[in-house]
Design goal:
Helices cover 58% and strands 4% of the residues. The chain is mostly helical. Strands 1-2 form a two-stranded antiparallel sheet. Strand 1 and strand 2 form a beta hairpin.
Length: 138
């Protein structure tokens, strides 16, 4: 899945942006995908693995440096799931389940976008676990 996304879009651009600590957005997204798949398999959950992996890899596909001071992304925590989903929809023609994974991964910060599927809940949890580790690992 990752090779296809790299070939079809700008996924490798994420290597240029830092997400948490010294972890790039690209590394973070790959970690979230691996962690999500681990949770799903470890707990033997009946899920759509392809959507889980694609949603996890694209959950932060916002394609900008959110650390730069700018009015248009000062609300990054609240808005980036929708930018990422918009970018993924335009470039990769994602399915509804994948869009829902991307848009709800910041729950509960984005209160109205609750994870509605197992895949979305798994990615939401995996994202929190990976983000916490990347932030405090120093």
């Amino acid at each position: 899945a990752i090779r296809t996304l790299e070939k079809e879009g700008r996924l490798t651009m994420e290597k240029n942006y830092i997400q948490h600590g010294s972890t790039s957005v690209y590394e973070h997204s790959v970690k979230v995908a691996y962690t999500s798949l681990y949770f799903a398999r470890r707990f033997r959950l009946n899920i759509d693995e392809k959507s889980l992996i694609r949603g996890a890899l694209l959950h932060d596909y916002f394609l900008y440096d959110w650390h730069e001071k700018s009015d248009w992304h000062k609300w990054h925590g609240f808005s980036h799931p929708f930018r990422a989903a918009g970018n993924a929809r335009r470039i990769f023609h994602i399915r509804k389940r994948e869009r829902q994974i991307i848009e709800s991964h910041m729950w509960p910060l984005t209160l109205r976008h609750v994870p509605e599927t197992r895949e979305a809940a798994i990615v939401c949890i995996a994202d929190k676990c990976c983000s916490f580790y990347e932030t405090v690992r120093r």
